[in-house]
Design brief:
By secondary structure, the protein is α/β, with parallel strands linked by helices. It is 24% helix and 24% strand. It is globular and about 70 Å long. The N and C termini lie far apart (55 Å). The relative contact order is 0.13. The chain binds flavin-adenine dinucleotide. The site of flavin-adenine dinucleotide has 32 residues, from helix 3.
């Protein structure tokens, strides 16, 4: 039998599986010998209490050993000879589409204008040190797409386009920390994310998929009113069962190409924002009441929302302890402009990239 128990515990208890087990037994008045296993299935920090506490939802296995969950990778088929699906873009959309092709028995053939995650680093250094932007290999273009060198925040819980849980489990099976499906605000970590991306590449190749880097798609091959293939900038052509466009929002040349081919595209409303930088200890003090954060507490974050004239105004993508990176995709004269201003009693400093 499985029972779910909610707990509110100290940081130290939340960090120790044996203390969690004892807390569960105490709270639910369970006989110790009946509790075979306790798994934390949800974890969030309650920063309102002083000191901060941790909310846990635990699955408690009573007189029953939990079945190991079958790996999603076990669903994948060898696809060397299967019909080919051409995927343009090796960002999150392209790589996850490729994994779904493996599950469905199709051979994904990916093309990305950029380089693989390792070689791409050299071009990022050139941006940071000399302000030189390679239009095909930069913070937005290359293996893993725009977020490869971010800390990989996985905050969305949208269910509109499928199950988040499957995405999180696939990331875990490729090297992300097993806690990401459990934490309320999970992130993969900038130190791990490029390796997770490279592990996904290995899976795609292992099952018979293909990935072509430094391969910029410049045209679609349309015959009998259907998209049948693609043409690369160097003139090579590929035909496939289907063509999937996963080029992200920075590939302006793709929008021009679609326009040239008379393929209708719809614009999405977008949000316009400014960046506000705060010292991390300030946010830690406001949120946790601790300027020197406890070692078991993650860097604190916040979210603000309100309505102005019927429209939502919100803080987006708080990046605790983050770095600022220039995400230009074409050569620019000046990479950043700084301005300072006063709003009421507050002083704001902004850098426009
Ligand atoms: C610095 C930074 C930090 C971020 N941090 C986060 C975060 O923490 N959490 C989060 O959820 N989101 C984050 N994002 C946003 C996130 O990265 C994007 O939402 C996501 O990458 C979009 O995925 P995508 O696959 O649709 O497109 P992209 O990631 O843009 O990938 C598109 C790919 O297509 C390739 N491509 C483009 N044109 C062509 C062409 N003509 N031929 C061949 N290949 C082409 C590009 O090289 C690229 O690799 C961040 C973005 C940036 C820039």
């Amino acid at each position: 039998m499985i029972q779910h128990i909610d707990l509110r515990v100290s940081l130290e208890t939340a960090d120790d599986p044996e203390l969690i087990r004892l807390a569960v037994i105490r709270k639910a008045h369970l006989p110790s010998e009946d509790v075979v296993d306790v798994k934390v299935v949800r974890r969030s920090i309650d920063a309102r209490s002083r000191p901060p506490q941790v909310q846990l939802r635990c699955a408690v296995f009573l007189r029953e050993v939990p079945e190991p969950e079958p790996a999603i990778l076990a669903e994948f088929k060898q696809v060397d000879e299967a019909p080919e699906i051409l995927i343009i873009g090796a960002g999150p959309a392209g790589y996850f589409a490729a994994l779904e092709c493996l599950a469905a028995g199709y051979k994904p053939v990916l093309f990305d204008r950029g380089k693989d995650a390792q070689d791409r680093r050299r071009d990022l250094r050139a941006i940071q040190q000399f302000g030189e932007v390679d239009p095909d290999s930069n913070y937005c273009f290359g293996e893993g797409g725009a977020g490869t060198y971010s800390d990989g925040k996985l905050y969305t819980r949208s269910v509109k386009r499928g199950k988040m849980e499957r995405v999180l489990r696939l990331l875990v099976e490729h090297g992300a920390h097993p806690d990401i499906p459990v934490d309320a605000h999970p992130h993969i970590g900038s130190n791990k994310l490029p390796q997770v991306v490279m592990n996904i590449r290995e899976t795609i190749r292992h099952f018979g998929g293909e990935i072509h880097f430094s391969s910029k798609v410049s045209d679609l091959i349309i015959r009998d009113a259907a998209i049948q293939g693609i043409r690369l900038e160097d003139g090579r052509e590929w035909m496939g069962r289907a063509v999937l466009l996963a080029t992200g929002h920075s590939a302006r040349d793709i929008f021009h190409m679609l326009n040239r081919l008379g393929i209708p595209i719809e614009f999405k409303p977008y949000a316009l924002g400014v960046r506000i930088e705060h010292p991390q200890p300030l946010i830690d003090e406001i949120q946790y009441g601790q300027r020197n954060r406890h070692e078991l507490l993650p860097a604190s974050s916040y979210g603000l929302t309100c309505q102005v004239d019927g429209r939502g105004v919100f803080s987006f993508c708080m990046c605790p302890g983050g770095l600022v990176v220039p995400t230009a995709t074409s050569p620019v004269k000046s990479l950043s402009t700084e301005c300072r201003c006063r709003v009421g009693t507050a002083r704001l400093q902004m850098r426009v990239l």
